[in-house]
Amino acid sequence: MQDPTWSTLSPARMGRRRAWVLFGVQLLILLHIALWLWWGRTLSPLEPSESMAFAKEGLVTPGFLLFVGAIVATFLFGRFFCGWGCHLLALQDGYRWVLKRLGIPIRPFRSRLLRLVPVAAFIYMFVWPYVLRFAARMEAPVPSMQMTTTAFWQTFPGFWEGLLTFVLAGAYVVQLMGSKAFCAYACPYGAALAVADSFSPASIRVTDACQQCGKCTAVCSSGVQVHEEVRDFGMVISTDCMKTLDCVAACPNQALVYHFGVPAVFKKRRASGKISSAGIPSWGEELLLAAFFALGFWATQGLYGSVSFLLSLALGMVCAMYGLQVFRALGQKNYRPGRKAWRQNHIWTRYGRLRFGFGIFVLALFLHSAYIQFHSQRRDAAFADTSSFRNAWLRGEVSLPAPAAVLAKSEEALTAQSVLARWGLFADARNPFVRAWDTLFHGDTAGFESGLQEVLRQRPGFGEVLFQLGRHQSLLGRPQEAMATWRQISARDPRYFDAQLEILYELRLAGQANAADKLATDLINRGYPRSRVQGRILPDEAAATH
What we know:
This protein is mainly alpha-helical. It is built from 26 helices and 8 strands. The strands form 4 sheets. A two-stranded antiparallel sheet has the order 1-4. Strands 2-3 form a two-stranded parallel sheet.
């Protein structure tokens, strides 16, 4: 039954109520950070992205529990978490409020192909690790818990990258694509919650008092065609509905109620009317959008060794929209994407020339990023061809200098990295890594170690480099330094298991059997293959185990 307080709240008062709730969420986040700064240890981050640790390692964290709890709550009550508890949505709503105060209209953008992006992102983050484990025939890890941490920022991007993510995902894409654009076209967590929402018995439903005035659709910040859906289905079936309840508060006849009934996925159409196609691109434009999104995402993912997955999703959205705007501006004699026209009767306005020029500039930046990405991959491909010799060196099986074929591939990688050093806008930690190995290929072991230290100064905690530096130190007869280096590798780093095996071997070489047995038991309990753990022991011990 409808809460009577909702029927008497104006949309503005409902918005203020939700704004205070979201403001409280931001305060709790700040308090969480303050506790960590004060005590040095606090609850692990309450971020859905922390659930990746469970997919990869079976690690149960507060972030994983939050995400599971949000999914369960959405199954029961609908998608309230997004509308009332997401800190990124608070930023989007805040920027939307600023734009409205400035009199800048926000036009919701409705794309069919871009809606597949969150699904693909969810599969990549939370399903793909299981596929990789199955392909590698790894045993399922034994679940373990990590409720607190001293390394609060370990899984978060740096300050500037985080700020850029908030600016783009929380503000700029709102101006380009609508109030909750990042939620609809990029958020991987929203993809899971949207599926749960479709099975929820709780939804916005309509009574016979509805007169199809359309005020509900006008106030919906999620871009849902509320009046059409309640007309055709008797309820809101769109999984974009985040239960902000603005539509309930806006209805002049109190015809909308939040109530329980048949879930949206099982609801049959009860009426048929004209479906609005406002804001939906043609299929040709959809393909163009998808192509520009793919360009923006591919060109920036991991760019300069630092652009995070979520940031590259936001950048892909920006590239897609500017690509579409430039295309439309060139092909339409009258083009007005916002308050001001770009073209009128084939004539460019001054404002249109400025915006078109800026759009070309943005696309040029993405093309430059693609150029850098291309040479990065060219460098990495050539460098990958030296992997056999590099691995053999780390196992102590070859001598220096490297064969001519390896030196030729290293030179090819150096040529590509010189292009990156010349034309790149930012430093890339992979470049000194390639140079470091080139010095080793020519027989300079001291230069190799110095080069790896340079990489670590740019990217502290880089597991691959720490692992190789530790092996190098071990080969030079410095086992204590090697173990200290390997222990710097995070438990969430792909190189963590390999580093632990090396520590296990060094402990047994040093005669520290108790410490080695404890480490081996811990690794097996974490789900790492027993055969690999037992295989990394001394030859005489290996014989004894059989």
